[in-house]
Amino acid sequence: MKTAQLFITCLVDSFFPDVGEAMVDVLTSAGVDVEFPHDQTCCGQPPFNAGLRAETRPMAEQTIRVFESAKGDVVIPSGSCAHMIRLNYEELFADDPVWLPRAKALASRTFEFTEYLVDVLGVTDFGAHWDGPLTYHPTCHLHRGLGIDRQPKELLANIHGAQIIELPEVQDCCGFGGIFSVEHPELSAEMLKRKIGNLEKTESPTLVVADAGCLMHIQGGLKRQKKNQRVVHIAEILNSK
Amino acid sequence: MNTFHQSIRRSIQNENLQQALDANTERRLKGRIAALASLSNWPERRQRAHAIRADVIAHLDSYLGQFISNAEKNGIIVHRAKDADEANKIILEIVNHVGADGHPPLQKLIAKSKSMVSEEIELNHSLEKAGHHVVETDLGEYIVQLRKEKPAHIITPAVHLRRSDVGKLFHEKIGIPYTEDIPTLTNTARKILREVFLTADIGISGVNFGVAESGTFCIVTNEGNGRMVTTMPPVHIALMGMERIIPTLDDLALMLSLLPRSATGQKLSVYTQFINRPLNPSASLRAGNQKRHLVIVDNGRTRLRNSPLQESLYCIRCGACLNACPVFRELSGHAYVGNDGSIAPYPGPIGSIVSPGLLGNNFVHLAQASSLCGACKDVCPVGIDLPKLLTRVRAGETQNQGNGLDPIAKFSLQMYSRIARHPRLFSVSQKFAALATFLVSPFSPWIRLPAFTGWGYSKDFPRFASKPFRERFQHKKINSVPESEVSRLRMQSQETLQSASNIKDKVEKFSEELTALNGNVRRVMQENLNDELIKFLREKNVDAVMIWDKVSGVDEAYLTAAGIRSERSGDANIKVGITGATSAIAETGTLVIASAKDQPLTTSLLPEIHVAVIKSSKILETLEEVMKLDEIKSSASIALITGPSRTADIEMTLTIGVHGPKELMVFIVE
Question: What would the CATH number be for the domain defined by A2-119?
Answer without folding.
Answer: 3.40.50
